[in-house]
Amino acid sequence: MIQMAGKFYITTAIPYVNAAPHIGHALEFVQTDAIARYHSSKGMDVALVTGSDENSLKNVQAAEAKGITTAQLCEQNGAVFRSLADKIGLSYTSFLKTSIKAEHWAGVQNLWALCSKSGDIYKKKYRGLYCVGCEAYYEESELVDGLCPEHRKKPEVVEEENYFFKLSKYQSVLEELIASDKLEVLPETRKNEVLSFIRGGLQDFSISRSVKRAKGWGVPVPGDESQIMYVWFDALSTYITGIGYGKDEKLFKKYWPADAHVIGKGILRFHAVYWPAMLLSAGLQPPKSVFVHGYITVEGQKMSKSLGNIVDPLMLIDKYGADVLRYYFLREIPTFDDGDFSEKSMAEKNDSELVANIGNLVNRAMVFLANNYDSTVPHAELGDGDKKFLAEQDERHKKITALLDEMKLKEAMDELMAYSANANKYFQDSAPWKSIKESREKAAPPLYVLANQVKDLGILLSFCMPNASEGIFTQLAIEKKSWSDLGKLSIKAGHRIGAPKILFKKLAVAKKQ
Ligand SMILES: [Zn+2]
Question: Is residue 250 annotated as part of the catalytic site, yes or no?
Answer without folding.
Answer: no
